Amino acid sequence: MSSNNNTFAKMMAGVKKFRDDRNWAQYHTPKNLAMDLVREASEAVEVCLWQTDEELLVDEERKADIAKELADVLHCLLLFSDVLGVDLEQSFWDKLEELDQRYPPEKFIDELTYSYKKQKKLEREKQEMSDS
Fold first, then answer.
1. Is 118 domain-assigned?
2. Which of 72, 78, 80, 98 satisfies CB 3.0 to 4.6 Å to 33 for a cystine?
3. Number of domains within the chain
4. What are the pLDDT digits (tens) for 5-64?
5. Does the reported pTM lie above 0.85?
6. 88, 80, 85, 87: which is closest to 27 by C-alpha?
7. pLDDT for 68-121, tens place per residue?
8. pLDDT of the residue at 132
9. Cβ of 28: how many Cβ atoms within 10 Å?
10. 29: CATH
């Protein structure tokens, strides 16, 4: 992992130590970790079920439960990236750059994704008409 971020490296080392101290690496296959990642994320969603955004924002107990579930998601995500040999930190920055290119701020400030898709569809249709 090419990381200048000491915190990220400590998190990765921590989850690997936790795993190795229990001899669980044998169970941490890509498929199992992918399924576990979805399961952990669904537990975070479950805490939000049937609540309004306003209720979630003021319910400190629920926010604490969500924080625990998000930590589980991160734990699993770190192990999943490790078993695949993915530099998660670099992948994050690469993806952020890709998104920045795809959605430049000057075109997307206060714009909805639907509006963008509609605009692109109209541009394609216009191009197809001019090509024919």
1. no
2. 80
3. 1
4. 689 899 999 999 999 999 999 999 999 999 999 999 999 999 999 999 999 999 999 999
5. no
6. 80
7. 999 999 999 999 999 999 999 999 999 999 999 998 887 776 656 677 777 788
8. 77
9. 16
10. 1.10.287.1080
Query: Domain of 52?
Result: 6-86
Do 47 and 65 contact (CB within 8 A), yes or no? yes
Rg (alpha carbons) of the chain, rounded to whole number: 20
DSSP-assigned states of every residue in the chain: -----HHHHHHHHHHHHHHHHTT-GGG--HHHHHHHHHHHHHHHHHHHTT--HHHHHH-HHHHHHHHHHHHHHHHHHHHHHHHHT--HHHHHHHHHHHHHHHS-HHHHTT--HHHHHHHHHHHHHHHHHHH-
Residue type, 76: C
> 38 or 123: whose pLDDT is higher?
38
User: Tokens 């959605």 appear where?
Assistant: 103
Q: Which two tokens stand for residue 57?
A: 């924002």
Q: How far apart are CA 28 and CA 118, in angstroms?
A: 42
